[in-house]
From TrEMBL:
<keyword id="KW-0129">CBS domain</keyword>
<dbReference type="InterPro" id="IPR036388">
    <property type="entry name" value="WH-like_DNA-bd_sf"/>
</dbReference>
<dbReference type="InterPro" id="IPR000644">
    <property type="entry name" value="CBS_dom"/>
</dbReference>
<dbReference type="InterPro" id="IPR051257">
    <property type="entry name" value="Diverse_CBS-Domain"/>
</dbReference>
<protein>
    <recommendedName>
        <fullName>CBS domain-containing protein</fullName>
    </recommendedName>
</protein>
<dbReference type="InterPro" id="IPR010766">
    <property type="entry name" value="DRTGG"/>
</dbReference>
<dbReference type="Pfam" id="PF03061">
    <property type="entry name" value="4HBT"/>
</dbReference>
<dbReference type="InterPro" id="IPR028979">
    <property type="entry name" value="Ser_kin/Pase_Hpr-like_N_sf"/>
</dbReference>
<dbReference type="InterPro" id="IPR046342">
    <property type="entry name" value="CBS_dom_sf"/>
</dbReference>
<dbReference type="InterPro" id="IPR006683">
    <property type="entry name" value="Thioestr_dom"/>
</dbReference>
<dbReference type="Pfam" id="PF00571">
    <property type="entry name" value="CBS"/>
</dbReference>
<dbReference type="Pfam" id="PF07085">
    <property type="entry name" value="DRTGG"/>
</dbReference>
<dbReference type="InterPro" id="IPR029069">
    <property type="entry name" value="HotDog_dom_sf"/>
</dbReference>
<feature type="domain" description="CBS">
    <location>
        <begin position="256"/>
        <end position="314"/>
    </location>
</feature>
<feature type="domain" description="CBS">
    <location>
        <begin position="195"/>
        <end position="255"/>
    </location>
</feature>
C-alpha cells in the first residue's frame, strides 16, 4: 500500500502539463494535511516535473530527457532572470527552441524568429505583438511593461510575456550560463546511464529459502543479490558469506544484511564507484524515491563507464578544467614537475591565489604522479594541506610530487608547491587505486 506521500507524487505526475498545483487543493482532493501536500510538491519540484514561479504559482511542467537537458522551459527562464509574467501564463510549461536578441530593425529581427523562440527585447511595444503573432514568447528587459492588447494576445496564444529589471546583455549572459551549466551536467555519467534494469536483474524475496540463492549462484555465478519485500522495496542484501553453513530451508530474511547501501538513478557514477571501492562491494541496488528496486549496477560496469568517459570530448568546461588545462609538464635533474601562471580567475578578492585553486593544483599534482606510476583509476581518500605563504597574481608556481608509499590498492604522495625557490604550500594525499 503506497504512503500518502507516494500517492501525492503519483497524482502530480498524472496531471496535465501546464496544470496549476495548489497545496490546499491537493490536501482537499487526497484527504491529507497541507504539510504533507507541501512536502510532496517540493519533492516533485526536485524531481523536475514541477516549477514554482513567484506571482504565478506552482505548475506542472514536462520533465526533460537527458538528451534535451540544454533546453529550458519558459518557467525556468522566469526563475533565472527574476522575471514577472505579464501574460500567457498557460504557456510557461513550453520549452523554448532558441532565444533571439531584438537589437535590430523590426523587419530584420522577424527573419530570425521561429515558433517557440524567446525574443529578448526592450520597450518596443509594437514589436511585442508582432513577435507573439509569429509564435514566439517575449522577454522585456529594463523592467518595462507592455500594452493590454499584447497581454490579451499572449493569453490567447499561450505564449508568455516576461518582464525583468535586468538589461539585455545581463539577461543573455544569465540564460547562457544556465544552458552551459546544463551542458556540463549532461556530460556527467549517472547511474541511469549504466543501470541493469529490473527485468534483467536477479533478486530474492524475503520469504525465499537460502536454496534459491544457490540456484541463482549456479545460474549467474554472482554471489550478491538484493532482497525485496512484497512492495518491491529493497530491505537487504544477501552475499556468499551470509549463507555459509546455513540450512538451505531458512528464509533469506533471516541471514540477509539489513539496511544495505543503495543508490538512486540520479547518483553520479563517480560517487557510486567511490562507495563500491570504499566498502569493497561488487554490486549496488538502484532504487526510486520510494525505495523500490529499479535494477542494479555492477562494479565492472562502473569502471568501464568511467574509462569510456575519460575518452569522450567534454562539451562544458568546468572551473577545474580551466585550472588544470593551463598546467604545463616539464622535467629537470630533480625529475618531473608541473608549472603554471596564476591567472586573475584563480585569485580571491585580495589578489592572491585562492585556497580552493591551490588545493586543486596540489591534488592534481599527486593524481598525475600516481597515474604515471600505476596505470589505472584512483579515488582520493584524504588530503592534508599546509598553506605557508600567499601566492601573488601572475606568479609562476611549480608543483613537485613524491610518491613515498604505494601498494596494490593505495598510494601516498607528498606534494610541494613553489613560487620561485620558496615553498608556498605542502600536502599529503592518500588515495585508493582501482585496477583497470
Amino acid at each position: 500500500m503506497p504512503t500518502k506521500h507516494e500517492q501525492i507524487i503519483r497524482h502530480i505526475e498524472d496531471l496535465d502539463v501546464g496544470a496549476k498545483i495548489s497545496v490546499r487543493q491537493i490536501a482537499k482532493d487526497l484527504t491529507v494535511s497541507e504539510g504533507t501536500a507541501y512536502r510532496a510538491i517540493k519533492e516533485a519540484e526536485n524531481l523536475g516535473f514541477v516549477s514554482t514561479i513567484e506571482r504565478v504559482g506552482t505548475i506542472r511542467i514536462k520533465k526533460k530527457q537527458k538528451e534535451n537537458i540544454e533546453k529550458l522551459t519558459f518557467a525556468e527562464v522566469v526563475n533565472i532572470v527574476d522575471g514577472q509574467v505579464l501574460g500567457g501564463r498557460n504557456g510557461l510549461h513550453k520549452t523554448l527552441t532558441k532565444f533571439v536578441i531584438g537589437a535590430m530593425k523590426l523587419e530584420a529581427m522577424m527573419r530570425y524568429i521561429d515558433v517557440d523562440s524567446l525574443v529578448i527585447i526592450g520597450n518596443r511595444e509594437k514589436a511585442h505583438e508582432l513577435v507573439l503573432e509569429a509564435g514566439a514568447a517575449v522577454l522585456i528587459t529594463g523592467g518595462f511593461d507592455t500594452t493590454e492588447d499584447a497581454k490579451r494576445l499572449a493569453d490567447e496564444m499561450e505564449l508568455p510575456i516576461i518582464s525583468t529589471s535586468y538589461d539585455t546583455f545581463t539577461v543573455a549572459t544569465m540564460i547562457n550560463r544556465a544552458i552551459y551549466d546544463r551542458l556540463i551536467k549532461k556530460e556527467i555519467l549517472l547511474v541511469s546511464d549504466i543501470l541493469i534494469p529490473l527485468h534483467d536483474t536477479f533478486y530474492l524475496q524475503t520469504n525465499d529459502p537460502i536454496s534459491r540463492w544457490h540456484e541463482l549462484n549456479e545460474q549467474t555465478k554472482h554471489n550478491r543479490y538484493p532482497v525485496i519485500d512484497e512492495q518491491m522495496k529493497v530491505v537487504g542484501v544477501v552475499t556468499a558469506k551470509d549463507i555459509i553453513d546455513r540450512p538451505h530451508d531458512w528464509p533469506v530474511e533471516k541471514v540477509m544484511t539489513r539496511h544495505p547501501i543503495t543508490v538512486g538513478i540520479r547518483t553520479s557514477v563517480t560517487n557510486s564507484a567511490h562507495q563500491m571501492v570504499w566498502e569493497g562491494i561488487e554490486m549496488l541496488p538502484v532504487i526510486d524515491q520510494y525505495g523500490r528496486l529499479l535494477g542494479i549496477i555492477s562494479r565492472q560496469d562502473v569502471l568501464k563507464a568511467l574509462q569510456l568517459a575519460n575518452r569522450q570530448p567534454q562539451v562544458g568546461e568546468t572551473f577545474d578544467d580551466l585550472i588544470t588545462g593551463q598546467i604545463k609538464t616539464a622535467e629537470d635533474e630533480r625529475g618531473q614537475y608541473l608549472s603554471l601562471e596564476v591567472s586573475p580567475q584563480m585569485t580571491n578578492f585580495m589578489g592572491t591565489a585562492s585556497s580552493g585553486v591551490l588545493t586543486t593544483l596540489l591534488v592534481e599534482g599527486a593524481t598525475r604522479m600516481l597515474r604515471h606510476m600505476k596505470k589505472g583509476d584512483l579515488v582520493i581518500e584524504n588530503v592534508s594541506i599546509y598553506f605557508i605563504k600567499p601566492v601573488q597574481i601572475e606568479s609562476t608556481i611549480t608543483i613537485r610530487a613524491n610518491v613515498f608509499d604505494v601498494g596494490r590498492k593505495f598510494g601516498k604522495v607528498d606534494v610541494e608547491m613553489y613560487q620561485g625557490t620558496q615553498i608556498v604550500a605542502k600536502a599529503l594525499v592518500t588515495s585508493q587505486l582501482i585496477d583497470r
